[in-house]
Structures are given as structure tokens and as C-alpha cells.
Amino acid sequence: MELNRFEQGVQKLAEVDGTAGENVINALKDIAPDLGRYIVEFAFGDIYCREELNLPEREMVSLSSLLTQGGCENQLEVHINGALNVGITPNKIIEIFMQCIPYIGFPRVLNAVGVARKVFATHKEAVR
Length: 128
Description:
Elements: H1 5-17, H2 19-28, H3 33-47, H4 55-69, H5 73-85, H6 90-104, H7 106-122
Helix pairs in contact: 1-2, 1-3, 2-3, 4-5, 4-6, 5-7, 6-7
Domain Carboxymuconolactone decarboxylase-like: 33-117
Protein name: Carboxymuconolactone decarboxylase-like domain-containing protein
InterPro entries: 4CMD/NDH-1_regulator, AhpD-like, CMD-like
């Protein structure tokens, strides 16, 4: 039986974020349930399920994109956690940020490193 976009998205979200993704969806149920559904269906059911990039590659792109936008610390926290969950090491996450310094500058990278420090301290797999 073929899964619908939402079911497929829920499975992929759990693969990336474990229970953290479910917590985000539940947090949106009372205020913006459609937003939660769109995130699951489109981002995880459609985009994350494409075969051209694997999950670590997708998380590296997500980290870089969020970092360059600035002001996305909450989402950066989610995706640092996701990156760790799919096998990206803390050192590699920091190196992704370092690579962006010439293009976006020190302030945004310093903010991202601060978020990473917080996630690494709480993530059970993050050993530096």
C-alpha cells in the first residue's frame, strides 16, 4: 500500500528528528494545524523523500541555508539536532559554519555556533 504525502512525511520527519519533529507538529495543532500539515507533507513528504540527496546532505544544505538567512535560531536548533541524528558529527557541523564565514560574516556564524553549543550539550550523541 502506498503512503500518502502526510504519512510519508511523518515517517521521514521521525527518521530525521526522532520525537522532536512530532513535538513541533503537536505544538502547532492548537494554533496553526495547517502549517504543521504543510511542513510534514511538503518539506518531509515531498522534498526530503527525493532520492538525489541523502539525509546528511539535506541537513548540511539546511544548516547552511538557515545560517545564511540569519534570525533562524529556532529552526537552526531543530536542524542541528537533525544533523546529529542522521550522523553528522559536531566537528562537521562547526566546519559547515566555518565555511560560511567568508560569505556571510562572523556575527551569523557566531550566533550559529552558540546554538550548536546548546544543542551539543543536550544531545545524547554529541561527543566532542
